[in-house]
Predict the 3D structure of the following.
Amino acid sequence: MTTPTSAAGNVLELVGVSKQFPGVRALESVDFGVRPGEVHALVGENGAGKSTLIKVATGVYTADSGQVRYQDSPVSFASPLEAQHAGISTIYQEVNLVPLMSAARNLYLGREPRRFGLIDVAKMRADARRALKRYGIDINVSRPLRSLGLGVQQMVAIARAVDIDARVVIMDEPTSSLEQREAETLFRVIAQLRESGIGIVYVSHRLDELYRICDRVTVMRDGKVVHVGDMADVDRLKLVSLMLGRDASEVRRSGATAFGDTRSTPSGSDTPVLHASGLTARHQLEDVSFAVRPGEVMGLGGLLGAGRSETAKAVVGALHTDSGSVEIEGKRIRRNSPAAAIKAGAVMLPEDRKLEGIVPNLSVRENIVLAALPRISRGGLVTRAKQDEIVSYFMKRLNIKASSPEQKVSELSGGNQQKVLLARWLCLNPKVLLLDEPTRGIDVGAKAEVQSVIDELAGNGLGVVLISSELEELIEGSDRIVVLRDGAIVDELKGDDVSEDKLMDALAAAPSTDGAEGAEGSIDG
Amino acid sequence: MAEVAAPASTFDRDRVLALLQDYGVYAAIVVLFVIDTALQSSFASLANLRVQLFQAVPIVLVALGMALVIGTAGIDLSVGAVIALTSAVIPLYLGYGVWLAIVMSLVGGAISGLIGGSLVAFLKVQPIIATLALMIGLRGLAVIMNGATAKPVDDPTLNALGIDSWLGLPEMAWIAAGLVVVVAFVIRRTTVGRQLVAVGDNAAASSLAGLPVRRILLMVYVLSGVFSAFAGVLLVGHGAYADPANYGLNYELSAITAVVVGGTPLSGGRIRVVGTVAGALFMQLITATLIQHNVRASYEQMVEAAIIVAAVYAARGRSGR
């Protein structure tokens, strides 16, 4: 199944590595190798073993058996730091630098240029500026890191890694929180790294990126390597089917996303189930008005910072608005609070699952019934039977995988957490469902499940507002797309206009002016 | 503990720490009690236990309120000052009847909690700052109300509440036990109790889920104030003195220690009610043990400090997973 990788010119390789956790076999005799000067995609569903593999390679875990080889000799790093010193750097989604220190300080942390025993600030800044300019990033390096865009932060992390003389750079979902433009800069940097002979391991769920920048690919499933080969030799469909372990024809039938291709156009009355008018919030929203009919999925398009999340939040009372109103089935929501919106029937799946979604230390059960608790309680007392009924129904319906309803929700995979949150809202029988990046960072299987649930819900007459930075998802999932820019509606796509071309046109026709997006704007692209 | 740790072939540090955080305090109580009794058999006498309980009950009550506040990831430093306030309020109203004096004390605690809770819930002041301000201000107020000298409080009802026993144990211990049961029930089985825990675990998510976050925050500080005021009532009754300058000093620290030692994390989202009671009893037991062996109070403080560090370490190890 896999090719023996010995002496294949790999800078870093794992040979026959196995790793077991209590009750789980995370890696089973895995061979993996990255060559100098290649971008090597590492793909697989959540739980396939990608992160365990990375952690074994970088000294977070020790392999139970098998060997890690680096530059042709067996190694056993005691910590990620040791691996980093040896030349293997890992760039995580959340940048692990010091947010309050300047970009320059971060670049040279622990190895500052010194003069008379003191840090030579002038030299450090000049060096930092030069180092970042190599990647086409022109920023004020004295600014604290956290005031810079996420993309820039990541670039600083990469520049630091390369500057420490990295031979291998491992990137774990580097673009998941980047804006398109920032991602472009990242790709350019990756190309540069490749040319200078650095081996890059690239973990991502985004197929577009993989095909664009990767040379080879290793596909993992259930702790095993199921495919190794050139990226060009495996088409999208094949890749997805390898990851899922499903038949390619089956994947083809259901399309790239799990949305049905034709949804019968919203039937029934034309009375909108959701009617937002004149939503205005200082510096964030400007007179945003729209209506959603029952059974309709309205997409919200726009670039990062265009006001999509803010619009959704304003509808459910989670963002303070200065003026404007929201009506659900013709009835105006009186108070500007999530509680009032929920009572009226409007709920929102938040973008940031960790920050605004899950209650980590509570069980799956308690997370599901969190919002419904007052409704299913009697005289303020929690009734268990009713809870169990709801929980078991939704765990089955949404295929939530947990060892039991009493398992802590934080122990679940991202996809299952997202389904728990979906259950939290669905058990309230909402009339309007606002979904902010419902499939971000979840594995392919869960993604498909969430998408088909959205389809089904709309089919049942729910009004849905969909926000997604994945164009494919937005286009295939939406009946209609409202395009935002700088907090205002600039375009609306209907019918046949709901296509990638038209959406790109609409986004492109809306060039981001400076102002709101200062940090990102400073990437010199 | 041993039976759980033994079958694990490899030393699992996280699990041991988790067990230590959850049940260590109970084991420690048993161990300490056995040692004390072995060294001096009269330690286990009912008379001595009664004495220990009289000391421990006010702290248990304060810690109970503190546990609720800490459960929401907050902290209440004003509890000792509320006790001082109570000891100033009681002499003021005692002339109108003992029950009015008690009620007014509780109202005072509630108002204090309302102020602290409002600062936290509505003005988003950090709990430690909001209640620190109260801690300083209320004691000042109490001393102004009462004057700097302690006043004798001679009321049969109040004193009875402070020193009488029923079925061999202090009356106040029975009352406290009842309150513990009520609080434990509220936390585990009521909507508001579960919401409280959720707010402590993730306030943003709770708010988005339509939970009355601000009302819950307000509630815990009010309850903490009322529990502290009640502890103050018992202290005044027990001591037959009202001394606003000295009553309740360091109670906030004792209460926080009891809560933490009992296994409730300071980061919120988890409340161990029975553990809190055990934590308070354990700290009392430490004090009693050291006093019994004529150890100076300064050493006692150092021992307490070591225990706090150990408890927080056990909690840290777990969350670091």
In short: The two ends of chain A are 42 Å apart (CA to CA).
